[in-house]
Design brief:
Layout lengths: L1 H14 L4 H5 L1 H4 L2 E6 L4 E6 L2 E7 L12 E4 L2 E3 L3 E2 L4 E2 L3 E5 L4 E5 L5 H4 L8 E3 L3 H8 L5 E6 L6
Length: 153
Amino acid sequence: MRKYIYCIVIVLFTQIYALPSSAIDIFKRYEKMIWIDQIQQVGAAYEHGEKLCEFPIITGDDETPTPPGIYVVRAKDADYYSRTYDTPMSYSIFFDLKGKRAIHEGEVPDPDLKKELATHGCIHVEQPYIEWLYDWAEQGKTVVVIHGGREGD
């Protein structure tokens, strides 16, 4: 638990220049947080500072990155379909409406295969984790912290 809190504090201080007021009081403003560690390709859900769930993920790569930062869940759509990529993106939890980036259901390959695959900037989470995360996250009340960048796996 201390390891994750330490990592969160580091991320918050590195983001403080971009979002000074919200970075300082993030824990006061949001009871729920989705932590995305792009370096380890793992996500976690926290409520009141307690980790509830950890799950494997896959994010974007150098060509189609998932930008690190602090976001808020802006919209949710259980049956979203991307016309751009002509594919279903079930259980979409949108954190970046302008960039059309979301946490959604998608394949998360074994670590050896991750090197060859990436998303288009979204975050893939497999069942049963994505359905639980979708039900648990609240629009406007859950913060998404994306740490690091995806490096050569």
